C-alpha cells in the first residue's frame, strides 16, 4: 500500500498541513494487525518529500535516523517543487507561516541535494556528501551506522 507520511518531524508536517506523525504510526500498527488477521503479507510503501519549506538539514537528519532505525530505504522521494496556488508554495515564497513566523526555506543546489541524499542515505553516490555533512556536525554515531550500510551494499549494483 502506497502511503505518504512525507516526513517524520511534526514541525515540518504541521507546515505541510498534515497530521502528527503519531497518526501514521497508529495507522501502520492497524495495517500490520489487519494483515496478520487476514493471514496476508502486505507492506507499506512510504513516500517522503525533501526540502519542503520549514524543513532544515537537522529535520532531514532526524528523518534519516528514523529511516535507518526502521531499515527503510525509500525509493519514492521527491524534492519540493513549488506549485502555484498551494499553501506550501506560499510558505516558499513568503518565507513565513500563516502566523507570520519566519520559516527556513531550503534554497541553493547544495542544501536541496543534501536533503534528498539524506533521505536516500543507502545510495552509494550520496555517501560523500552525507559523510562531509555529518562530520561537520560531529554526528559520528549516525555516520558509523551509515558506513556499515554502505559497506554492506557494495557489489549489489545501483539501488
Count of individual beta strands: 3
> Mean of residue pLDDT?
93
How much β-strand is present in the residues? Answer: 5-15%
Rounded to an integer in angstroms, the radius of gyration calculated over CA atoms is 17 Å
The assigned structural class equals mainly alpha
Which of globular, elongated, flat, extended, rod-shaped describes the shape?
Answer: globular
Distance between the termini: 21 Å
For the biggest sheet, the summary is: 3 strands, parallel
Structure overview:
With 159 residues, the chain is mainly α. It contains 7 helices and 3 strands; from the N terminus they run βααβαβαααα. It has helices at residues 10-16, 21-38, 57-70, 87-94, 109-119, 127-136, 140-153; strands at 2-6, 45-50, 77-79. The protein has a 3-stranded parallel sheet with strand order 1-2-3. Helix 3 links the parallel strand 2 and strand 3. The longest helix has 18 residues, at 21-38. It is globular.
Summary of the model, kept short:
Helix content is 52%, strand content 9%. Helix 3 links the parallel strand 2 and strand 3.
What is the strand and helix layout of this fold?
Layout: E1 2-6, H1 10-16, H2 21-38, E2 45-50, H3 57-70, E3 77-79, H4 87-94, H5 109-119, H6 127-136, H7 140-153
Parallel strand pairs: 1-2, 2-3
Helix pairs in contact: 3-5, 6-7
Search tags:
9% strand; globular; 3 strands; mainly alpha; three-stranded parallel β-sheet
